[in-house]
Specification:
The chain is an alpha/beta fold. It contains five helices and five strands; from the N terminus they run E-H-E-H-E-H-E-H-E-H. Strand 1, helix 1 and strand 2 form a beta-alpha-beta unit. The two termini are 12 Å apart. It comes from Cohnella ginsengisoli.
């Protein structure tokens, strides 16, 4: 599916418990032409990911109920073969080793807050095969 600009449109789940961060990322992705669904905690992210088919999940690693690392592991374990969305950590953690922890939990990529449009666009483009 493509958006009005003719670029690929993705179905994206945003997992974030901070309303401001959620709004910023949601609006950014929507302006890029993507369809966005929001979940407020790790349990909701897992439930949504197993209920619906998403291309990407952008998820904070520090969320209530179930943290993002455990949510990523659960999604990877429970998804049907070939049906798991790309999971991108979105976090304020920028310490050495944080990226590695996210990747070890099954996340596909890592973005530091505050999120920047060009970084998000690059990640989406790299997995979708073109600029978005």
């Amino acid at each position: 599916m493509t958006n009005e600009a003719g670029t690929a449109q993705a179905k994206i789940l945003v997992g974030e418990d901070n309303p401001i961060n959620t709004l910023v990322l949601k609006k950014m992705l929507e302006k890029m032409g993507h369809h966005v669904t929001v979940a407020d905690d790790g349990k909701e992210v897992i439930e949504a990911a197993l209920r619906e088919s998403f291309d990407f999940i952008f998820m904070d690693i520090h969320m209530p109920v179930i943290n993002g690392l455990d949510a990523a592991r659960a999604i990877k374990e429970r998804s049907a073969p070939g049906k798991c969305p790309r999971i991108v950590a979105v976090t304020a953690n920028a310490l050495k080793g944080d990226r590695e922890k996210c990747l070890a939990a099954g996340m596909d990529d890592y973005v530091s807050k505050p999120v920047k449009r060009d970084v998000i666009s690059h990640i989406l483009g790299q997995y979708m095969g073109k600029a978005v």
